[in-house]
Design a protein that fits this description.
14 helices; HARBI1_dom; 52% helix; alpha/beta; 7 strands; nuclease; two-stranded antiparallel ribbon; single chain
Length: 391
């Protein structure tokens, strides 16, 4: 090839190479600047959180909330007073523009309407992804702060709790009773793992909520999430209050139904006599025992009635999150009680069947002697009352 033709070709190739190299350098410089800007933005957001969305005050549900004269029960299943109390309990510094007030409204509305993210998104005019994040955030916050509303009574209040069970049961013998323990099942969808562990005796998948109640039906302690196939006594033996011997204190008593063993130790848990009974004193004891224990059935009934759309249907969430949802329902039950938001349980709420009675383990001591002593004392008190009334 003639040298006159080679020289322009080399020059052209060199020019193209230099142009591409310059373009590559400019691209690298732009990428470096972009990374620097993103780093600065992250630092700014960390120090000065952004309000990424504005509140739509024109949404009907928010107009209802901001109208302080309007009642909230129909939409939120909570009174306005209880809602304000809940917001105060969960109040903390927020890291974005929604704020604690709106997050709590969204969560309670979600509970009241069957856990539908789509429904809540439409009602509040909030993106569904944001609703999902808020729901899990508030549920986790309640889970971590259950003790703000659920706790055992102080030592100086135990006598008052005992007096409540005397009134509830109709016998002065139960003045040392400071709680009733019971379990109920909550339906869940079949989990992907360990399905048969969650299949209960009635043939549906469930988790359990174990609770200790006072004489007013207030939750004193909860243990949530054990698979439905585990009997009530097994749930109790794995719960933290039992393993730590935290309640009841010495010389005080818990009451439980026939699904629990009658115990003196490691905790004092007194159950009714097995039917049919042998003596009239045992039947009388069972009658008073049943009256005292009815607070547990009533409290579970109130909770399931208030959150019927959630707790009376199958929870379409994973078992771990289902435990947080159920725990928050118990938390809200106490918040409502503390703020005069009372509710009558629906008679149509199904009762759980009694599992077979459990035998004692090697670490447990029978409470039959204590039960016999209480039953005999109950007969003596009744005879004294009859004698006094005839004098």
């Amino acid at each position: 090839m003639p040298s006159s033709l080679v020289r322009p070709s080399v020059v052209c190739a060199l020019a193209i190479f230099l142009r591409l190299s310059a373009a590559k350098r400019r691209h690298e410089r732009r990428r470096r600047r972009l990374r620097q800007l993103l780093l600065l933005a992250d630092q700014f957001v960390t120090v000065h959180p952004a309000s990424y969305c504005r509140l739509n005050h024109r949404a009907p549900i928010l107009r209802l909330w901001f109208d302080v004269e309007s009642e909230l029960k129909q939409d939120f299943h909570l009174s306005r007073r209880a809602m304000h109390a809940l917001q105060r309990l969960l109040q903390k510094d927020q890291d974005h523009g929604w704020g604690n007030e709106l997050e709590v409204l969204i969560y309670v509305y979600w509970l009241a309407h069957g856990l539908s993210y789509r429904v809540v998104s439409g009602v509040f005019n909030v993106p569904r992804s944001t609703v999902h994040r808020i729901i899990h955030k508030v549920a986790q916050r309640i889970w971590l702060h259950l003790s703000l509303a659920i706790s055992f009574p102080r030592a100086e209040d135990l006598h008052k709790v005992g007096r409540g069970f005397v009134d509830q049961s109709g016998t002065a013998v139960f003045n040392e009773v400071v709680g009733v323990i019971d379990c109920t099942h909550i339906r869940i969808k079949a989990p992907q793992q360990h399905q048969f562990d969650y299949l209960n005796a009635k043939g549906f998948y469930s988790i359990t909520i174990q609770a200790v109640f006072d004489s007013n039906g207030r939750f004193l302690d909860i243990f949530v999430g054990y698979p439905g196939s585990v009997p009530d006594a097994g749930v109790m033996r794995n719960s933290s209050f039992y393993q730590a011997r935290r309640y009841p204190p010495p010389s005080y008593i818990l009451l439980g139904d026939e699904s629990y063993p009658c115990l003196d130790a490691p905790i004092c848990l007194i159950t009714p006599y097995t039917e049919p009974v042998d003596r009239p004193g045992q039947a009388l004891f069972n009658c008073h025992h049943s009256k005292a224990r009815s607070v547990a059935h009533r409290a579970f009934g109130v909770m399931k009635t208030r959150w019927r759309s959630t707790l009376s249907n199958t929870l379409e969430v994973k078992p771990a999150f289902a435990s947080q949802v159920v725990s928050s329902c118990a938390f809200l039950h106490n918040v409502c009680m503390d703020n005069g938001d009372v509710l009558e349980p629906d008679d149509n709420i199904a009762q759980d069947p009694l599992p077979p009675q459990e035998f004692l383990t090697d670490e447990e001591t029978s409470g039959i002697a204590t039960r016999d002593r209480l039953a005999a004392l109950n007969v003596s008190v009744l005879q004294e009352q009859i004698t006094f009334s005839t004098v």
